[in-house]
What we know:
- By secondary structure, the chain is an alpha+beta fold.
- It folds into two domains: 41-162, no CATH class; 178-496, no CATH class.
- It has 13 helices and 21 strands.
- The chain has helices at residues 3-22, 41-59, 80-83, 92-116, 119-126, 130-149, 153-162, 171-176, 179-200, 222-231, 244-254, 455-458, 490-494, and strands at 68-70, 73-78, 211-216, 233-234, 240-241, 257-261, 271-274, 280-283, 288-298, 301-315, 326-337, 343-350, 357-360, 365-366, 377-378, 389-395, 402-409, 417-423, 430-431, 437-438, 495-496.
- The chain has an eleven-stranded mixed sheet with strand order 15-13-12-11-10-9-18-3-6-16-17. The chain has a two-stranded antiparallel sheet with strand order 1-2. A two-stranded antiparallel sheet has the order 4-5.
- A hairpin with a 5-residue loop joins strand 4 and strand 5 (240-241).
- Residues 1-7 and 11-16 have low confidence and may be disordered.
Amino acid sequence: MDRPRCLNLRFVLVFCLLAALFYGCAMLPVPTRSNRVGETGPLGNCADFFASLDKKTGEAAVLDPGVFRVKNYPYLRVNRFIASFGEQVNQRDSFVAWTEQMQALDKDARKYEIANLPDSAVAMLDAANGRAGLYNKVAACGDLLKEADFRDIEHQQELRKRVSAPDEYIVLRRVLGIYPLTSLFISHGVSKWHEAAHKKFSNEPPVNWQTIRYVPDQTSDWKSVRQIFAAAKRDALGIPYYSPEQREALFRMYAPLWEIQIQSDDDRIGTPIWTGKGVLDVDTHKPQAYALLSFTRFGKQILTQLNYIIWFPSRPKQSDWDLYGGLLDGLNYRVTLDSDGAPLLYETVHNCGCYYKAYPTERLQVRAKIDYAEPPLIFKAPDLDRSIDLMTVAMESRTHYVQHLYPLSREMQPEAVAYSLAEYGQLRSLPYSGMDRRSMFDQYSLAPGSDRLERFILWPTGVLSPGGMRQWGRHAVAFVGRRHFDDPFYMDRMFEEPGSK
């Protein structure tokens, strides 16, 4: 072989290795096709419709990656919480509830995919009825195929085998990165950060901080929350249902006060937008927190979780070689409610999945031994009178690390800027250019342009683009071992009821 060809071959091999290293085996939202594609009659037509819709959304690069597809069932999607019921749906009513939950996830995702489709693609799929027609057909065809696909036990068992939610760790990276060795150094770095965080954190207000405060523009009272929980209906899986009005009341009851040490506009919260140049930015003139309802499991209970997500324009770099700075930053503050609607657990995590912290109330006891390779960072929650207090989440400037969590009476009326609550789903379909729309997140669930230099150091952990901002439901929250923010069993591994043996 002559030298130029040899060099070209080596270049291709190196390129392929790097591609596999940084992108290979990442969880892409690959569409799936029904086995009924090509059949005649209504079932075949519906299967063909889903195949055509997925083809157009794939060509337009608007496939939503927040939840996972179920092979052979294009009208179903799953997250980690719903997947956790797979071994329990042995009765007809529980199986029906399970598939209804998965179909609801698919319809929700397709709502944003259809909204983000170019007009030309919509016209080719349904020129007469447009986007509304497509969404109506998603619902009708999903119902039709679901009824036909699971009429007998054999096909129900087949679905249980196919339903899974892959984790966020890329095995190939860990193999190539000699993970058993590199994880030792990473674990040491995590321990040092835990030590520093313990020294700085308190349940008291910050001292000598120049701050900006954001308070919710509306609140609700404890009496209404108690009534909501007393009247809440649950499906056959035990998952509660809340009306839109009830959800809003819950989120307004526990919406926090954000207190941020301010040095620049990068310490102000706002609304993510696509600029005219096709770059993500945060409009700090419109402060918002994005509300997302989730559920988790604790013992035999299904618990309600309220997620409040905020965004900053950036974590400013201190130098060109700053590993952790870059475009966009943000925080998720989560409140897990007990069966009576009272707070059980508070948590914070940055929107990269980094810097996870848990703050259990007195209703929880930390387990003496927590079976995680990377121990979670746990602090004590402050005592809070939910009828009169707002929880204050205080973050330091630039890094936006949570340094204080403390109650503040609603009657104190602190000087503050009002923020509004918006549905998190709005981020999955933002105005882009002209009449077009685009999700804040790309096909890898990452916010474009938010990558950090640390990704070149931490790639052996198996996490895709460590430090990059990502979509909810795709957060790995440990670099050593495996742990996810939406793991449905994490509370059982970390906590127990007081007095438990």
